[in-house]
Amino acid sequence: MRRRAGTARKLVGMTPVLPDLLNIDATLSDTERDIRTATRHLVDDLVRPHIARWYADGRIPARQLAAQFGESGLLGMHLDGYGCAGASAVEYGLACLELEAGDSGVRSLVSVQGSLAMYPIWKYGSDEQKDRWLPGMAAGELLGCFGLTEPDSGSDPASMTTRATRTADGFRLDGVKMWITNGTVADVAVIWAKTTDEDSGRDVVRGFLVPTGTPGFSAREVPAKLSLRASATAEIVLHGVEVPETAILPHVTGLRGPLGCLNQARAGILFGALGAARDALASALDYATTRIQFGRPLAGFQLTQAKLADMTTAWNSAYLMALHIGRAVDAGTATPQAISMGKLHSTRTALDIARTSRTILGASGITGDYPVMRHAANLETVLTYEGTAEIHQLILGKALTGFDAFA
């Protein structure tokens, strides 16, 4: 069908292509490219045809997607054993990039399951806890969530007020957790709480595995979100939740437990955000080459080309940093500061790209016919969670100067 003059095609159900001007693909292994391609096809089949509606409706078929992602080996894919794929950090990152090219909420479903729910069980759990939860979570039959953030305790997790009080049979949990991805659909919650250390008498942070059907556990969907709408986000209330001694994660004490999980998640997010950016940029490029104004395509104007050139250069810069950090993670040489730099750079770059891409699409950029505004709105959340931009700046500032400016 011939397109009317002045109109541009709508990209629905397909991944828009961004030219690889630096030939970065040549640096990837065959396995890395295969995982990226397989994940891209999965997103094209399962996500792209439906995501505009899910976003508009503020819902996501989390359990259905989890089952299909589990069958494809995406859940906990960077972990070994228990049905997990044992993929590298770069392979996991490339999968996150493709998932977030579909939508940030879809990538959040996968990364929370693998890095924030499965990882603490895999890293800090007992053999019994691993056997009970990990195979079902890897298969997508069971979903998990990660309860660290509280209404008044976000960037400062040490100020959490959720408590675990020892009882004759284990612990009683009381408190509120906020902004919990997968919270309303999870089968098990990894809850971080303060409890009194019996040896020192001091408060310490410990992790607890809480089946969500336990009496006193409730999860309520956070209403009226304007970002990350295709994601199940909950407020969790723990009111006298009784768990046995075996619920505690035995192999970690203190904030290094949840912070170690956040580093795992950030390593995926710094790739993932670039997926949203690439999708926005490629959509803007496609639009600019087909949208006719003043008798020629938008792509033929100098100002449009300048925007496209600057965005492509910024995207490739952040992508190369992500690959470098991913390979350092695989080599065991990555530092928390490096991961913070990657998360900071990727999310800020991605948000700038999405916003600028929107300007190329003009009024069409604010509609659900194109993914650009949806990505921009989602990236506002991605910029903030797993450490705000300011927190990552302070982490880098401390590494550079030696001075702790957090307080």
Structure characteristics:
disordered N terminus; alpha+beta; flavoprotein; globular; Butyryl-CoA Dehydrogenase, subunit A, domain 3; 11 helices; 4-stranded antiparallel beta sheet; glutaryl-CoA dehydrogenase (ETF); 407 residues; flavin adenine dinucleotide binding
- Kindly give the count of domains: 3
In CATH, the homologous superfamily of the largest domain goes by the name Butyryl-CoA Dehydrogenase, subunit A, domain 3
- The shape is globular
CATH fold-level topology of the largest domain = Butyryl-CoA Dehydrogenase, subunit A, domain 3
Low-pLDDT residue spans: 1-12
Number of strands: 9
State mean pLDDT (0 to 100 scale). Answer: 94
Query: Secondary-structure element sequence?
Result: HHHHHHEEEEEEEHEEHHHH
For the CA atoms, what is the radius of gyration?
22 Å
Considering DSSP H and I runs of 4 or more, what fraction of the residues is helical?
40-55%
Give the termini separation: 62 Å
Secondary structure blueprint with pairings:
Elements lengths: L29 H17 L4 H7 L4 H10 L17 H14 L1 H21 L2 H12 L5 E4 L15 E4 L3 E12 L6 E9 L6 E9 L5 E5 L11 E12 L11 H35 L1 E2 L2 E2 L4 H30 L4 H26 L10 H13 L4 H13 L6
Parallel strand pairs: 1-4
Antiparallel strand pairs: 2-3, 3-7, 4-5, 6-7, 8-9
Protein name: glutaryl-CoA dehydrogenase (ETF)
Family: Belongs to the acyl-CoA dehydrogenase family.
Keywords: FAD, Flavoprotein, Oxidoreductase, Transit peptide
